[in-house]
């Protein structure tokens, strides 16, 4: 629309630079690259200067970027190259951005030699030596297999920057490539030219690393890079490692001595733990214990010793020491961590709430141990106890996002929606984090019965994606204005990444579903559903193939071994689960959307058919738009196929021992509550049987009526199964005998109840459409003129529209009664759950396994005892109060969720009662 306005304005004033510039930017916003090129060239013709010329060049580059076929790229990119080369030959290039654009064009054509010539030539001198350009040059050397040059260049870079890890890894890559091709470099003696010196053997590499180490020692603060480089070289040498570098234990302990006090120690050494096998592991742990210098049961006496101890504990857990313990030993160790946490409070030398406390890691590791015990025993009381300690730690360290994430995870494990929502709010997730971290919380709120909060989360997320799409367009126009060409593709890729984010699509679909909970009448229902035109697009195969997983699974801190961590295979499995769920939900919503259109079409069709019969005309059924009918049939078949696949090939859940997996997809809820899809399928077929737009002319009205009866019977059976499954699951959670089982199964009950409410809501939507159709049929019967009646009597002695209408109405009323009965039974079940859970409670504050430990003042050192007395302590009574507060928070979450479910069902009950009065 904006483009057309500027186009019309330019017809009157074709040489207006301002209008042309505005038109160009309007094309940038809609990504019309061809018209961008034409407009930029027109601008350059009006006012010849470099910016307009390079706008045209960049527009051609974007056409190549957008092209899917190589032929298009082979045409457009050489054109862009020739245009820039022309300016180079005429010595018109001055700006750095223009040179970077030329390099980008050469890279897209894989002309690496030409790119290297630019970087090493006079044009390269005009470029600022940024990290990006340095890495580009390294990459070009590798693409051209100029490993000696790369090695020499990297050596010079490392001499200037001792701590750049990417330079070390690339240096080793080039070194081993040279060694592989030693014949080529055999007679060079490390010299291919007067200024080119490179390493061609392990001995030379070690000599170079030792030189770097000397430089490092001379610095005021030693850097980690060179120490890790020795370990990295050892790992790459494999069987020859001991020959060249000695014992790996010495290298690892040397690093630990230097940097064991830093939080990065664990993450730096973790990749190399696989080098240690059997007896080497024990030897390594003994060496670390010696450095830490703490006897079993002792507590750190200084901040430095505490930091060493924490690094030791993290590495111990990673190599599997905790996995070898039984439940009792793990509980004792968790208790010890809690004692360490309290004892080490004196080492928190900052009272600022914006900083993490030094001793927080003890609590985090305690939480991991309690999770391990839950995995083994499947008792959520251990998770509840971990929550108590985490809440205490969070009060003292409110900026520690690791504690917030653990609280979010653990509260969701209990199904405590309100408590988890507080933890989520404390995380202050915003902007792109809604995409990368939103999965932690957004979909769980609906599963736990908090529909209003879920609706706000969906709306906020969808709004972010919509606003972001427009904001990226602003950044694109700014990039063209300031000539930041290398950023343009980045912005376009970022926009596409968000557009095809699976979290984005899932939020759109779920936002539509949850908006249907607030529908008040069948007229409103029809109006709202008809606006959901994005559902079929999301359900399309082309859209689903473009889905991208932008979620950040590394955010949750994890000290587990690789076998219990998120692997690429597990991440792909998780993504496939959500992709299946998205397809099912999008196809289901599409059937609702097309059913609404079919119902709307039917009302128009009905009037036409009456008029035709009155005038003696033969109405062709196909005169009604078949588009919606065909799409409804297509999506119904897809839904049936997806249901069959869910039956024959159910998704495999991720092992709960994998700590970072957070929660399984809602697809598992659908597997448990398959009735939802069967009910939806039968409702769609019911709508088909009532609409002449859908019917096959070979079938008589009696056959369609019989089909409706079959659908009604199947609906009765499926509702009975669904209600029985809900009641059976609920009965398992009401356990008053064993206090440690008070929380078991509550989250599952909430999920099954919300699935049932979702099913009942979908049923109401379909019933609203059915009633709309019945209203149309009623209009036809009432307004049937005598001329039509007489004509029908002569044409057929069997079909009676009034009788047929009454038969259909009876079937519809029967279905409404089934839904009403199901709502009543589910309401009764929820009320019984609420009463039982309130009576049972969440736990016993006196039965905690982890205790709040007061200071043990049996220390001989009076000063140390005095320091200990200054530590923040709470009495045993206050500890119980904290537990009671948390239990109340959890209990209120359950009560709030169940109350909201009851209110939602009562509202649906009223709405369905209105339908029954038709």
TrEMBL record:
GO cellular component terms, A-Z: NatB complex
Keyword Nucleotide-binding recorded: no
Taxonomic superkingdom: Eukaryota
Entry keyword set: TPR repeat
Family statement: Belongs to the MDM20/NAA25 family.
Full protein name: N-terminal acetyltransferase B complex subunit MDM20 homolog
Organism: Cinara cedri
Lineage: Eukaryota, Metazoa, Ecdysozoa, Arthropoda, Hexapoda
